[in-house]
Amino acid sequence: MIDTHMHITMEEFDNDRERIVLEFEEIGMKCAIEVGYDIESSERASLFAQEHEKVYAAVGVHPHDAEKVKDGWLERLSALLHQSKVVALGEVGLDYYRDLSPRTVQKEVFKEQLKLAQTLNIPLIFHVRDAYEDMRKIVKDYDVRGVIHSFNGSEEDAKEFVKMGFYIGVGGIATYKKNVALREIISHLPLERILTETDCPYLSPQPVRGKRNEPKNVRFTIEMLSQLFNKSFAEIESQTEKNAKNLFGICS
Length: 252
Hints:
Number of strands: 8
Helix content: 40-55%
Number of helices: 10
CATH class: Alpha Beta
CATH topology: TIM Barrel
Distance between the termini: 13 Å
CATH architecture: Alpha-Beta Barrel
Radius of gyration: 17 Å
Strand content: 15-25%
Shape: globular
Strand order of the largest sheet: 1-2-3-4-5-6-7-8
Structural class: alpha/beta
């Protein structure tokens, strides 16, 4: 199993993050990616990855935090992207649901990070909420690759992103009872373009909904995909691990 999107350096894990990572081998977790959302959390993610064999890092500025960037932020981010075990730029993108940063600022900060990813030839982890059309319009102008984290768009959105060469991140929300339509969309995607993730401590899957999410809960997503694609747990696990390795070059 691979969790391609976790936030284990957040305060919710202050009491037991070391235990959780130590249990990776025992629970069959090949590796996981710790994802930053601003410069400070990205620095923590990079350091945590360097200190733990089975952890990698993604660094970037989330659209919620786009308005908070300070002079020199892009240079600091670029330096982090050259650190060992930093395998992606993210999470970055557009969020028109919460609009915690003005949309013009979100787009400006997003484009700067797209340019950086293109220059360094590093994959991206995209955060998109109620902004799929604008996301496609902006990204098509850059030669980049990556994953649409926690996908929750339309079938057209999914097909367009796959056509553009992106992966689709599938996690806890796809297991919720009410999300029948989302599971239907996922079932029509090529399995070779799906990545498993948790977004912990958020978005706990249905069997543990209401509790703090953890990397080990990625197994519930694999179980759900097993049912959707009528394949064994082992087959889904193997293919999604291969997908993560192909995009991020991890767990090799």
